[in-house]
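Practice problem: Peptidase MA-like domain-containing protein
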Amino acid sequence: MRASRAWLACLLLLPTAACQGGTPAPDEPSHPGLPERSGPPAGMDESLRDAALELVETREQALVDGDRDAFLATIDPSAKEFARTQARWWDNIARLPATDLSLELGDEGVMTRVHGEGDLQLPVDFTMRLDGYDEHAVTQPLIYTFVGDEDEVLLTSDRNLQNDALTGWLPAPWDVAAITVEESDGVLGVFDDETKDEAAELQDAIVAARDAIEPLVPPWSGRVVAYDISDVDAIDKMSSMSIDRTAGIAFPVMARPGGKKVAAHRFAVNPVHTDGEEWRGILFRHELVHVALGSSDNGSPRWLSEGVADYVAYSAVYDVDQRRRGLAQQLGSMAPRSLPTGRDFYQGRSRLNYALAHLACDYLASTRGDDVLWDLMDSFRHRGAPFPADVEARVRAELGMSTEEIVTDALAWARSA
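Answer key — structure tokens:
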């Protein structure tokens, strides 16, 4: 009874726990695309440009060689805040299994769409791959701001707010804070000064969650990068719910902003929601299901992708009768209704939407076998994402019943436990 009560308490919180990132799917570019690469704009000081490009090469060589002093020597001493954050960034990258490091001149045509200070600005593409975790290298478009002349040029900034907005840039933990890195058994955990005291414990919990879901999901690599840092701005921008109601989020990392190639799937958690061993386990398992499925649930209605994540997260620990009783108690006397399909899933009564989605998927898997869920996901993925009005038709074609009929039968099933 103690375990059942604790489980129900976690179940009641789950809708505040997790959702998939609001970043675009691989086939949905976030912006119309950058101009084709062009030569330097007319009137640019060629000598200054050449000197700046030599500085970029120096920074790249310092990255490849692991020469911290040479890297930081490229920064204008008067840009003290930039120098401080660059030193922190260098130390962070040194803690990561970073490879394929490069700095290359980007598309200069983008400079017609941004502006800034300094004697010269140039687009520079920073590329890095987390060895063993990223299928492809990840390129981040930057804007370098230089001061000086052809005799001596130095760097004062690598960011530009207009360019960040244009590319949809979201900071990684190593961009915003000093990080601590834990790596064990194919899991890379990234923590900051406010979460590092619990890093070892949380890392063990992530590994345990990964091991728990592996037998319950289609085959995947089992390798994952997880973030647990106090700066939650990136989570806030990706989540379809308010940050206070979002405990975790899984998201694709694109090889390049606006591109179609996915380099990796990762997840981030809001540290204010990681207290409590039982609840934390559910949160981590839920997010890891999203990571394990990757793009497999592209096109699936929200009730299916979130319901599957809940079903696996709970069934890894609780038997079917415990799950039925807990869901019946949470849903109370709710009358049957259709399942929400789009972003409305996260609005309004999102807690009940999560519980109802969990119930529908649990009922289908428990009465027909897990393959019914994977087959339904495959149907949505291979035939393309339908309009909300088409979801019901496809569900009926695949399962022989509407989502309201599924809910009706599932509620009866749960209440009869």
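Discussion: Confidence is low (pLDDT under 50) at residues 1-17, 22-38. Students who identified this feature from the tokens alone can consider the problem solved.
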